Amino acid sequence: AGAAEFVGSPLRKGAAAAEFARDLVAALSKTPRSIAPKYFYDAAGSALFDRICELPEYYPTRTEWRILTSHAHDIAQCMGSRADIVEFGAGSLAKIRLLLDAFVPRDAPRRYFPVDISAEHLDSAARKLHADYPQLSVQPVAADYMKEEQLAGLAASLEASSQRRVGFFPGSTIGNFDPDEAAAFLRLAARLLRGGGLLVGVDLVKEPQTLHRAYNDAQGVTAAFNLNLLRRANDELGADFDVKKFAHYAFYEPVKQRVEMHLLSLCAQTVRLAGREFAFEEGGSLHTENSYKFTIEGFRALAVSAGFVPGPVWTDEARLFSVHWLES
Ligand code: AVJ
């Protein structure tokens, strides 16, 4: 046991490209135009996201890291002895190391299932993690965790053992979901993790300038991340977006309490994709991401509505970010 092998139903490349094509055609065919942010994360997009996490303006990663470091012992206590850990949207598998290091060897988690949509990125990260934690069975799951059928293999692996299961969903990725989707995800997680719990990182509502800067960094990495969607559509789907003729636009929308990212057409232009033509007027938008911000009480109420019993919450001095333990 212990090798980094794929379990579950890996997204086959062809099927993934077909889904991207279908969703992008649908996105460009409706008004207003919008597409799910999961399509940012091909290998290049995941690497750009890792760079965002290092930016001086992007406080969430750094702040969450500090919270996890300061409370790692309490968190390990909540997770319990010899648990199976499922991480949703695991990315580069950096944060789990911090938690793993907080356990004494006899209580250390036994199996770790990082779930991520970006298979290549996940596979190499899983190999590195297993090399550094040889006692830990690392079982990457290349899947869209919003699709329960893609988690069937994972659910079966968890069921096959009597270990306690705990989830880890850091980074405020939950902020990408509309309120209905966030509740649906939490209900799915509560089912999968029954008898255990979920550790969730949640970005907080705050003064809008801080939010604005976090999504409009001076080096333009966030802009490159947003525009990468178009580059990816060109490479994978044979679309002909002229990436230079689109601009990154991100702003905080206080009524919905979310940062919105859009790609705006800098001129009137026509784009070809999958044998069709899509006209953009000058200033026309493709909405690429929402990043919802929460109050601590608001998030706890959402968790309760999804069937969790909220436990301790940890935050930083400036109350920029929060980490919640939820019992399932
Ligand atoms: C990974 C969804 C938490 O919303 O802050 C970072 C993605 N987008 N900069 C976020 C993102 C632009 C990030 N999440």
Automatic annotation (TrEMBL):
<protein>
    <submittedName>
        <fullName>L-histidine N(Alpha)-methyltransferase</fullName>
    </submittedName>
</protein>
<feature type="domain" description="Histidine-specific methyltransferase SAM-dependent">
    <location>
        <begin position="21"/>
        <end position="327"/>
    </location>
</feature>
<dbReference type="InterPro" id="IPR035094">
    <property type="entry name" value="EgtD"/>
</dbReference>
<dbReference type="GO" id="GO:0008168">
    <property type="term" value="F:methyltransferase activity"/>
</dbReference>
<keyword id="KW-0489">Methyltransferase</keyword>
<dbReference type="InterPro" id="IPR051128">
    <property type="entry name" value="EgtD_Methyltrsf_superfamily"/>
</dbReference>
<dbReference type="Pfam" id="PF10017">
    <property type="entry name" value="Methyltransf_33"/>
</dbReference>
<dbReference type="GO" id="GO:0032259">
    <property type="term" value="P:methylation"/>
</dbReference>
<dbReference type="InterPro" id="IPR017804">
    <property type="entry name" value="MeTrfase_EgtD-like"/>
</dbReference>
<dbReference type="InterPro" id="IPR029063">
    <property type="entry name" value="SAM-dependent_MTases_sf"/>
</dbReference>
<dbReference type="InterPro" id="IPR019257">
    <property type="entry name" value="MeTrfase_dom"/>
</dbReference>
<keyword id="KW-0808">Transferase</keyword>
